[in-house]
Specification:
2 helices, mainly alpha
Length: 102
């Protein structure tokens, strides 16, 4: 396939443009990889610095006191927990009474 002079005037600049576009795409993918790598490293560093779960022995009870005051608050807390469990155990739309009149 032979090209004429006029065809070469159009074809050569277009090959340069196509080469530039291909190079830009290649550079963009490299930039995207580097950005993703930086984000992953940043997230890993953040995960290292923060704790996700508390240790069971690390929890402090500010209401705990020695003597009867501490026990009274502990009993109140247990009562509140039982009440909240009872509230949660009730079904939202089923009734508590049976209709025996038929």
């Amino acid at each position: 396939m032979s090209l004429k002079g006029i065809e070469l005037q159009i074809a050569i600049p277009k090959t340069f443009d196509a080469g530039k576009v291909a190079e830009q795409k290649q550079q963009q993918t490299q930039v995207n990889r580097e950005l993703a790598h930086a984000l992953v490293e940043k997230q890993m560093l953040k995960n290292k610095e923060t704790t996700t779960e508390a240790e069971p022995f690390a929890k402090a009870d500010p209401d705990r006191k020695e003597g009867k005051d501490g026990q009274g608050k502990n009993e109140e807390r247990q009562m509140k927990i039982k009440e909240s469990e009872e509230k949660e155990s009730k079904h939202p739309y089923k009734g508590a009474n049976f209709d025996t009149i038929g």
